[in-house]
Amino acid sequence: MKNKSALWKWTILAAHNGAQGALVCAIKDTSGTNILDKRSAIAMLGWFEKPDEDQPRQHLDRFVVLLKKYRKKYPVPSLPNQQIKNLCKLNNEFRNNFVHFIPQGWGIDEAIFPPLIESALDLIEAAMKQHQVEIHLNDDMRRRLDTDLAAARSGLAALGNGCPATLTAGGPGAYPHQFERSLAPVFHHPVHVFVRVVETEIVVGRRLTTVIEHHPDLLAVLDL
Prior knowledge:
It is a single chain. With about 220 residues, this protein is mostly helical. It has one domain. The protein is about 60% helix and about 5% strand. Strands 1-2 form a two-stranded antiparallel sheet. It is globular. The C terminus is likely disordered.
């Protein structure tokens, strides 16, 4: 991870998917409709009354709503406020921007990622130990869950707290004037075109290595 900053994207997406899946397992009721958004839930309940009709498409509710439902169903022990903030940040600022990418400038300090991922791991562990989940797990499943959580936490610990700041893609620009000036000598086409190319490659997870190989000066510019 320290040498391949673009992999943070996939780590964030994996942590988010794991947390969302654990939420669904822990709160799903017997009808399976309480994990759906309001329109889908209404449609499915109507279909239960008339199953001869075509089954409607189901749309999972938003992550933050699922989290709210989990906290309501399991108020004790309550999730720490910082964990809730981290989970919302993981979803709202990073997962959503990685999945629904629009070209923009974004400066990210990688040191903020491990706490967000740790909060997701804590939620996964807590949710998967709820009674309605545990009764469906056999001994092998429990061992695999414990092993995977331990491995993930060990990997985070190995990264340490000194992750370097790197320039990736996303929200309001990071040092835009210095960024443009430092890139200008490296590329002969307009800087804003290059910025879009690099942002797409980092966020989509493609061709970043190729860009670096073709333009070694970027190593210094992006501090990679």
